[in-house]
Write a structure and sequence with these properties.
Largest sheet: 4 strands, antiparallel
CATH class: Mainly Beta
Number of helices: 2
Strand order of the largest sheet: 1-23-22-21
Number of strands: 23
Distance between the termini: 56 Å
Low-confidence stretches: 1-42
Number of domains: 1
CATH architecture: 6 Propeller
Order of helices and strands: HEEEEEHEEEEEEEEEEEEEEEEEE
Radius of gyration: 20 Å
CATH topology: Neuraminidase
Helix content: under 10%
CATH superfamily: TolB, C-terminal domain
Mean pLDDT: 91
Length: 423
């Protein structure tokens, strides 16, 4: 379908968007419970009971696209160590090669937490952030050459004249790790907009050495259609070189009215992204009410929002003119209805948990769980919700060099956990 028609469809008759997105609705009452229906072909398959679907009339495009069989890890296989409860609204955790951990706090602080849980002072030199709503200091990633260049990258909501938008900066972490030096802003999402939602902001270096940046479409009615517009960064995944330059093999380089940084199109608010050991980029996108989705991202592809999507508006009204599948758009590999509100993702590649190798871990804000997905031949064949008993909104999950998983929780007194094999 031609781009002009996509833009037209996405702009028709937008209904009033609810006041908050899926990650902000954790306090709402749970839907009335009912026994879910299995959609996988396995015998004796019982999905996790997520309750009544928000949009039960929407049907999966293919068998197994939602409510996969529940898996269960033996509770004796792992232990959870709470390293600290003294973080302030942490957003990301990035393990350092020596076992210490870089942590961002939404209010604008970046700290190092030791392997034993000692919380360091804020690292100085971080630019000012706009911490309203979902904004603030967001993701952090190490340079692929961190051992030699000591470079770190971070995403943040940059205050600008007339509003804000997601930006990415890089700098050298001082030898004593107390400050960042030679700060460079290497990417500024456009346009600037006066809002406080859907900044996306996960950072991943691919096996090609390029930096992949996920961006939200800013949620509000007047800007949401830009997820389908190629002269806007909103609702896109961006691919740039480590210095911010645009690679020549990006899909829309030298195309008129196409921003050359764009790698993929039609995303809502991606706060979970990770590469697997085959070098493929996978994301988990915040859907509307009943539309979180897992996608494998490919060069130049369109993932549909808001033209093709599962779910509904928070008002309960249909998403205007949207369908759940359409030729020319990529169907999600998996979706949740009701949502889990995904934030943070990690394919497990370590040796500490052999049974988890190759599984995708996703932080669940509304689900208040660490979600584990078994993926086979690009299909989700099993799902498990770990750590539900802790009643915590999980914001990020990363694998350390020791094979442990590190998790931060989304709260004023945020926690940092280490998940390791039980001794």
């Amino acid at each position: 379908m031609k781009l002009s028609r996509l833009i037209l469809l996405s702009a028709i008759g937008m209904a009033t968007l609810g006041a908050s997105c899926s990650e902000e609705r954790a306090t709402e009452q749970e839907n009335e419970q009912q026994e879910p229906v299995a959609t996988t072909p396995e015998q004796d398959c019982q999905p996790i009971d997520r309750g009544t679907a928000n949009v039960p009339e929407q049907k999966p495009t293919f068998e197994g696209q939602t409510r996969a069989c529940e898996m269960k890890t033996d509770s004796t296989a792992y232990q959870v160590q709470v390293l600290t409860k003294s973080l302030k609204k942490p957003w990301a955790v990035e393990p350092l090669p020596d076992g210490n951990l870089l942590v961002t706090e939404k209010g604008g602080q970046m700290r190092i937490v030791s392997a034993t849980g000692q919380v360091g002072n804020p690292i100085t030199g971080i630019p000012k952030v706009d911490a309203r709503g979902q904004g603030g200091l967001l993701d952090v990633a190490l340079s692929p050459k961190f051992g030699s260049d000591r470079m770190i990258y971070w995403s943040y909501t940059e205050p600008r004249q007339g509003g804000n938008a997601t930006s990415v900066a890089r700098a050298v972490l001082s030898e004593d790790r107390s400050r960042v030096e030679n700060v460079q802003v290497i990417f500024q999402a456009q346009p600037t907009y006066d809002g406080d939602k859907h900044f996306g902001s996960r950072l991943n270096f691919g096996p090609d050495g390029m930096l992949y940046i996920t961006l939200g479409e800013r949620s509000d009615i007047e800007i949401r259609p830009q997820a389908q517009q190629m002269n806007s960064h909103m609702g896109k995944i961006i691919r740039i070189a480590p210095d911010g330059k645009v690679p020549n093999d990006n899909p829309f380089v030298n195309k008129e009215n196409h921003l050359p940084e764009i790698w993929s199109v039609g995303h809502r608010n991606v706060q979970a992204a990770t590469f697997n050991d085959a070098g493929e980029l996978w994301i988990v996108d915040h859907g509307a009410q009943g539309g979180d989705e897992v996608n494998k991202v490919e060069k130049g592809k369109n993932y549909g929002w808001p033209v093709v999507t599962f779910g509904e508006e928070y008002s309960g009204q249909p998403i205007p003119s949207a369908v759940t599948t359409k030729e020319g758009f990529v169907d999600p590999i998996y979706y949740w209805d009701p949502v889990i509100a995904p934030s943070g993702a990690q394919f497990y590649t370590g040796n500490a948990f052999p049974d988890w190798k190759g599984n995708l871990f996703v932080g669940g804000l509304r689900a208040q769980a660490l979600v584990r997905l078994r993926i086979e031949n690009n299909r989700v064949t099993g799902e498990e919700h770990l750590l539900k008993d802790r009643d915590q909104r999980i914001r990020d999950v990363r694998q350390g060099p020791d094979g442990a998983l590190y998790v931060v929780t989304d709260q004023e007194n945020g926690e940092l956990w280490k998940i390791s094999p039980k001794q």
